[in-house]
Amino acid sequence: MNQRERERLKVLYEVKQKHLTQVEAAQRLKVTDRQVRRLLLALAERGDGAMVHGLRGRASNRKLQTSFEQRILTRVRQRYADFGNPGRGAKKRFLEFWPFRNPPTSNSR
User: Fold this and answer.
1) How far is the C-alpha of 47 from the C-alpha of 37, rounded, in Å?
2) Is the terminal CB of the chain with fewer CB neighbours within 10 Å at N or C?
3) Which residue has the higher pLDDT, 79 or 84?
4) Which residues, in sequence order, are CB contacts of 39 under 8 Å at separation 6+?
């Protein structure tokens, strides 16, 4: 749990102990009072772990399969050898001209 999540947890516990109102907690956390109510419900259901983002430690849904990414990098290096480091921008430009419109993601089966 990072510092921001710990701070959220402290403020929510203050709300549970009636030391703060939901509106005051919302102002401290810079969220809406509706979001504070949602966080309080999640805290009651799942405990302290509810403050941690649900996708932490998991791969992005948008991540390309490693084999596909390597094919892209190989083609970029061959075709644009004098272009410089084939970073994210080069891959993006390359994908614009790639014959397949929907690249496979790591979640596709």
Assistant:
1) 14
2) C
3) 79
4) 8, 12, 31, 50, 51
Judge contact between 9 and 48, C-beta under 8 A.
yes
* Sequence letter at residue 98: W
What is the torsional sign of CA 88, 94, 96, 98? negative
Nearest to 37 by CA among 6, 12, 7: 12
- Which stretch of 11-20, 22-31, 58-67 has the lowest confidence by average pLDDT? 58-67
Q: What is the pLDDT of residues 24-47, one digit of tens each?
A: 999 999 999 999 999 999 999 999
Tokens representing 39?
A: 């966080």
* Separation of CA 97 from chain center: 28
pTM above 0.85, yes or no: no
